[in-house]
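user: Here is a favour to ask of a fellow structure person. I have my own habits and do not want them to colour yours. Could you put it straight underneath, so I can go through it closely?

assistant:
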Amino acid sequence: MTYEFEGKTEKDAIEKAVAELNLNADQFDVEILETQKKSLFKSGHVKIRVIVDDEDSGKKSDENDASRPVSGKLIPQDEFEQKLVDFIRNIIERMGYSASVDVFFREDKKIGIRLDSDSSSILIGRKGKNLDALQLLANVYAGHIGREDVRVILDTENYRVRREENLVHLAYTSADKVRSTRLSVLLEPMNPYDRRIIHTTLNDISDIETKSEGEGLFKQVRIMFKSY
């Protein structure tokens, strides 16, 4: 199912989508339909299209019912969290590795699981593909035991934070290359969350524009020079 949202910036439009659809920002794909940069006489304007599976859509939840976010090394608070931790540890052991698996944050409809292992680099894999695969399995399992409403986030060695920093650096260096050569740059295939980091990083640069190309979950971001 697709939806359209508007805002002063891409971030503003995405925040409206998150609030209205009651989803996390990494649960849907975003395509930028229109971008109008802020000028002396016009305010900024961005129009996006949000693509989401039907089963993931829902009504906005009451903010008063949201649980207060907590973080740190947490003890599983219920049967669901214990089953989830045991499942992830089991998968890693079946892969031939060992890891300490702990809850490190819980928010409304989101839980973070941290893996501490001597084999963290293998669990992460090339560009995080192994970690993403483990995260996907964890989310499928959560749905299998009746908690499809909860988004599971897996991390180890602060990979998610480091990945975001690297993507921001990639966005800026690629934009500089496009500006100097006037030729577009096509980045490697990325998941929706990583692509959104590229789009958001470059959204406010007046002479640069971005768009996603391809089909399926993993698309490529093209960075282009915008002439006036």
Summary: The first strand starts at residue 2 and ends at 7. The CA atoms of residues 109 and 150 lie 4 Å apart.
